[in-house]
Amino acid sequence: RSYSILIHGLIKAGCARETYELFYAMKEQGCVLDTLAYNTVIDGFCKSGKVNKAYQLLEEMKGKGHPPTVVTYGSVIDGLAKIDRLDEAYMLFEEAKSKGIELNVVIYSSLIDGFGKVGRIDEAYLIMEEMMQKDLTPNVYTWNCLLDALVKAEEINEALVCFQSMKDLKCPPNTITYSILINGLCRARKFSKAFVFWQEMQKQGLSPNVVTYTTMISGLAKVGNISEASGLFERFKASGGIPD
RNA sequence: GCAACAGCCGUCC
Known about the structure:
Elements: H1 2-12, H2 16-28, H3 35-47, H4 51-62, H5 70-82, H6 86-98, H7 105-117, H8 121-133, H9 140-152, H10 156-168, H11 175-187, H12 191-203, H13 210-222, H14 226-238
This protein binds one RNA strand through helix 1, helix 3, helix 5, helix 7 and helix 9.
């Protein structure tokens, strides 16, 4: 247990190399590694591009009296999805389902994000439908993933329809939601509509952050609207922002 | 206790 805490601490401190060394050293000495230790190392592997190693550890857990949990599956599914290995991510998702693991909104959101980012919008929608059929409520992360997928596919109108659904289903948008939509509107050159959302978010009590500003500023600058872009930039600095 | 979301820039090709 205290080893798990140490492993967790090392990863958080950014000492990935040391963490794995400790992890393997402990294994060799016959230490019993608990689920948290496995999950921490597996997530570390996923985030450092070593998804195959992560997958190997997930397999190892099955034989060690610490079966992979929903978090273990979540890390590896997300790791695979982030490097576009969606079919494998989906297979793991099916495997977890077949083992009776209660899949949650995090797993569904990861998959929606992954399929969406590679333009497999139909599949992203199907996963969204499946989760709702299972009475899981999409949260703001889930909706943001779907909206971003539509924006990247240049389907801003569809994104706006989903934005309405999200509000109808009582999921409050956040600053990230608005940043995604503003990005989509800028990509579609609908700047005046982007400004409408810019205002709307503030009416909802949400402040644009550095990403929201950058989205709007670079959107304007890309089409040569330098004066509006620099005006916003000045406003950003005046509001106490630190530019990236 | 551990897993999921947005912009620009940089590195590589």
